Task: inverse folding
């Protein structure tokens, strides 16, 4: 199919999304305020009455990662909970919808010691011991380095600070996927996980139904060439006027342009996406990633193979990996107990891809299909009903794993 035809088809698809999903929600259970869009995660946590501690964690390769803690209010003696966010996002994933709804708050209210990581290159982790943030060397990473360096460094820091030998791991999308990179590349970390709660794990994504994602796959080489020509190293960074920009581009209550993109990429569930909550979310998201990281995603979507970055030149691959064949992640080495969670209307991580992952890891102790059949990828952190249809189940499973580990 000609490139012009593909683009035309894509625009038609976007238009159908707008026409077909004009419904929007302006009433939600969340107790949040417009100013939350302009606050940092530590400011949000303090605003809603929780204590927060801020740390900077060094990795083996010199990145300095922000790690935020909500200490246990009860000194319950429970294992700590470590939480890792999705692509283009930050640890705001866990707190944006506020107390009594955000997953970090729900677990903190049950006496857990909460630790929330931020991957390299995101809004809160843009520092390095030697490299300048505007250097090509700083941005020379993909999700492999997040899994190989960031996740282990953050886990070790939490365990060292708390004195525990194990922790609960909760990851959403990329945050779940990078846990599998850590567990397969450094199998000794399996022994450090009480249980992994994998929310829409982005290990396999090749069944995506999003026309936007499919277009990115089709134009992958052109996209890479355009980034190279422009000298761009970072994609969708957070910026100071971000909230005001999106509020101008997507005026309430229709928010047409923003909802068009979200419905196409993540899946459409209009009645569960609150008007105010979307505005607040866009003050925090996107939070940045590397161009190389985004290209790595397009590779694994294209190929349907969970493996390291393909330099697409046999000599370059041989130089980096010692072989012209790009190494795959051996999922049989992820032996920690895993529970998966998936939605039937998730355009990013199709539920069949999650079921495929379940067949390839050796210790699946639970698989949960969200009962709302319209539940999308964005709904994992934003849906009005996310507590009732998902988080209550996650909390129950963490509590069950905690009892079994005690």
Result:
């Amino acid at each position: 199919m000609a490139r012009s035809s593909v683009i035309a088809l894509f625009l038609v698809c976007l238009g159908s999304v707008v026409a077909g999903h004009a419904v929007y929600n302006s009433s939600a259970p969340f107790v949040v305020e417009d100013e939350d869009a302009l606050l940092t995660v530590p400011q949000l946590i303090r605003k809603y009455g929780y204590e927060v501690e801020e740390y900077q964690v060094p990795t083996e390769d010199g990145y300095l990662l922000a790690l935020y803690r909500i200490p246990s209010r009860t000194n319950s003696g429970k294992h700590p909970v470590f939480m890792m966010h999705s692509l283009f996002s930050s640890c705001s994933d866990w707190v944006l919808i506020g107390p009594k709804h955000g997953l970090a708050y729900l677990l903190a209210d049950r006496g857990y010691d909460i630790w929330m990581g931020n991957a390299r290159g995101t809004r809160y982790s843009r520092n390095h011991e030697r490299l300048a943030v505007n250097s090509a060397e700083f941005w020379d990473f993909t999700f492999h380095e997040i899994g190989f360096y960031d996740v282990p460094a953050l886990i070790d820091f939490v365990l060292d600070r708390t004195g525990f030998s194990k922790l609960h791991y909760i990851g959403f999308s990329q945050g779940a996927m990078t846990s599998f990179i850590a567990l397969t590349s450094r199998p000794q970390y399996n022994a450090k996980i009480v249980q992994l709660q994998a929310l829409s794990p982005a290990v396999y994504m090749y069944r995506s139904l999003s026309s936007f994602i499919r277009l990115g796959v089709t134009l992958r080489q052109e996209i890479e060439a355009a980034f190279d020509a422009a000298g761009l190293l970072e994609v969708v960074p957070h910026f100071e006027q971000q909230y005001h920009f999106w509020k101008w581009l997507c005026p309430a209550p229709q928010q047409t342009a923003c909802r068009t993109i979200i419905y196409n990429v993540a899946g459409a569930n209009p009645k569960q996406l609150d008007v105010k909550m979307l505005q607040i979310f866009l003050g925090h998201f996107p939070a940045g990633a590397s161009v190389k990281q985004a290209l790595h995603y397009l590779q694994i979507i294209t190929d349907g193979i969970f493996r390291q970055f393909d330099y697409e030149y046999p000599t370059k691959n041989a130089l980096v990996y010692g072989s012209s064949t790009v190494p795959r992640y051996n999922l049989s080495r992820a032996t920690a107990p895993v529970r998966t969670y998936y939605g039937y209307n998730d355009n990013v991580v199709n539920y069949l891809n999650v079921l495929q992952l379940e067949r390839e890891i050796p210790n699946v102790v639970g698989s949960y299909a969200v009962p709302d059949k319209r539940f999308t990828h964005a709904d994992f952190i934003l849906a009005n009903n996310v507590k009732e249809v998902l988080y209550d189940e996650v909390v129950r499973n963490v509590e069950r794993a905690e009892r079994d580990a005690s």
Summary: The chain has 15 helices and eleven strands.
